User: Which sequence fits this backbone?
């Protein structure tokens, strides 16, 4: 292949690996004589609306779209496909989420399907509907193309009826798959069908007294002890979550789905249920779970970790997509301190993309973030550097930061660098909420104090040409550290940050001086040494 024409078949990025598995699935179907006709390849994601959508939910969607982009490239966009997002909103609400209002009201509706629970926010027809809209609003904001499907509607509108009747016919086979996975006590009362109580409206976990495949009915004792016979179709019942997983694959002809590691132990169960219902299970990809700052699994009901809205208050959508792309099979902390690094890494990948040949570009995350067509955006100043500028200048609005930026990059403007203008606003918000409260200054040692005084003096003496030359300034700072006999120059730079900015690390200090200004940096050092930090803090 030419350096300018990518060879998609050799791409090693994980979305291409998964897309090739989908290709292989289609090839097997063809060999077996299964005709797809115009039926599209279905990529699915599932959503449990028991709480507000979180970044893990978004991650599942955006990662699936990355696989779809790879599949589109491999098939030259000749194979129709679509993404469907299914909300399990018919599940019973088992507990009241801790991060929503009107909890006493919600407690009165425990056990009911989420779409039968009133919306605690008072904005939608139900709690499930509210959370579904939150998810869709966000996905729409990213411009994703998808079909949203509500499990409640799929059950009630008859989309699942055929598979539910088949499940009733195959009741014993399904029980044969499920019972070995359960404890002795649960086995005694287990049923793959969960009836919706005609009296209370709750999802009932009760044993079946009889199953009539011919009539399409089940018989059980309701909560009040009365014997009830219901048709399994029309939204009168739903399946337990494990059989439901496999049934959904079969009913919706799903070809690919990814899910978190907490589902890994049940993959075989889902697949067996799908086969019992007469369909081949899809290609499946397991990703690691996100952890909060304490190393605990992120939960919708706990509301720990970062919400979608929170990330986007402090950083670009592209940085979030990058975080999702990187090492999906490695457990990662998903908390506020990961944001600055994600922002800067995104722009580093974007800058590298323009210099790479076609094949290397296929392993660059921005290829997937931008559906194969990354923009040529660039920013002359890193997010980490902007954060330090905010800290040093006590900037409260973007105009202050732009004053420094224009000194470093003459002629630069918010109009020419809209991404940088956005970053400036993000940096001010992030600094105020996370950096400033965590600042911890310390007094310098005798060696550090002398070195800092020397640095301030030399900065005031730099030539005009050197004032914005980050490499020359970095060399100057190195020289001061060497002259004052720091055994490890890392400790010298660490001292600068801890004494002057109240943090243990930051971007290259030469770049900081170039944009903040040598005279201003010298004054920053003087204030730190004389206890006048309030001017910057």
Assistant:
């Amino acid at each position: 292949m030419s350096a300018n024409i990518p060879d998609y078949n050799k791409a090693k990025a994980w979305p291409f690996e998964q897309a090739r598995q989908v290709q292989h699935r289609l090839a097997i179907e063809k060999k077996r004589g299964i005709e797809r006709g115009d039926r599209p390849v279905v990529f699915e994601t599932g959503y449990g609306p028991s709480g507000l959508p979180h970044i893990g939910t978004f991650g599942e969607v955006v990662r699936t779209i990355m696989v779809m982009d790879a599949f589109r490239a491999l098939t030259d966009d000749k194979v129709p496909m679509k993404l469907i997002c299914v909300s399990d909103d018919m599940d019973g609400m088992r507990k009241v989420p801790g991060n929503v209002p009107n909890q006493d009201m919600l407690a009165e509706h425990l056990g009911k399907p989420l779409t039968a629970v009133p919306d605690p926010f008072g904005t939608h027809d139900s709690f499930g509907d509210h959370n579904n809209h939150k998810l869709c609003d966000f996905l729409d904001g990213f411009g994703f193309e998808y079909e949203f499907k509500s499990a409640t509607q799929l059950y009630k509108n008859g989309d699942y009826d055929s598979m539910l009747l088949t499940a009733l016919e195959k009741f014993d086979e399904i029980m044969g798959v499920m019972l070995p996975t359960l404890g002795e006590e649960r086995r005694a009362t287990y049923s793959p069908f969960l009836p919706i109580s005609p009296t209370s409206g709750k999802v009932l976990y009760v044993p079946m007294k009889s199953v009539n495949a011919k009539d399409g009915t089940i018989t059980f004792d309701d909560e009040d002890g009365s014997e009830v016979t219901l048709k399994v179709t029309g939204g009168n019942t739903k399946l337990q979550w494990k059989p439901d997983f496999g049934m959904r694959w079969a009913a919706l002809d799903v070809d690919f789905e990814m899910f978190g590691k907490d589902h890994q132990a049940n993959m075989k169960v889902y697949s067996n249920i799908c086969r019992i219902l007469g369909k081949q299970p899809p290609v499946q990809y397991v990703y690691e779970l996100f952890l909060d700052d304490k190393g605990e699994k992120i939960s919708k009901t706990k509301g720990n970790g970062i919400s979608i809205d929170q990330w986007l208050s402090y950083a670009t959508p592209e940085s979030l997509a990058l975080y999702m792309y990187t090492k999906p099979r490695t457990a990662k902390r998903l908390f506020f301190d990961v944001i600055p690094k994600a922002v800067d890494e995104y722009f580093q990948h974007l800058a590298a993309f323009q210099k790479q040949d076609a094949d290397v570009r296929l392993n660059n995350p921005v290829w997937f973030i931008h559906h194969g067509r990354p923009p040529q955006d660039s920013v002359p100043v890193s997010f980490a550097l902007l954060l330090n500028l905010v800290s040093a200048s006590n900037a409260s609005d973007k105009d202050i930061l732009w004053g420094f930026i224009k000194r470093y990059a003459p002629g630069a403007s918010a109009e020419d660098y809209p991404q940088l203008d956005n970053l400036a606003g993000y940096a001010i918000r992030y600094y105020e909420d996370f950096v400033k409260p965590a600042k911890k200054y310390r007094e310098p040692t005798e060696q550090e104090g002398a070195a800092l005084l020397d640095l301030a003096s030399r900065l005031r003496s730099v030539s005009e040409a050197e004032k914005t030359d980050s490499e020359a300034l970095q060399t100057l700072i190195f020289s001061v550290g060497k002259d004052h006999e720091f055994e490890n120059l890392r400790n010298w730079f660490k001292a600068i940050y801890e004494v002057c900015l109240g943090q243990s690390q930051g971007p290259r200090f030469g770049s900081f001086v170039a944009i903040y200004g040598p005279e201003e940096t010298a004054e920053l050092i003087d204030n730190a040494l004389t206890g006048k930090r309030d001017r910057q803090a």
Summary: The chain has two domains: 1-158+288-378, 383-535.
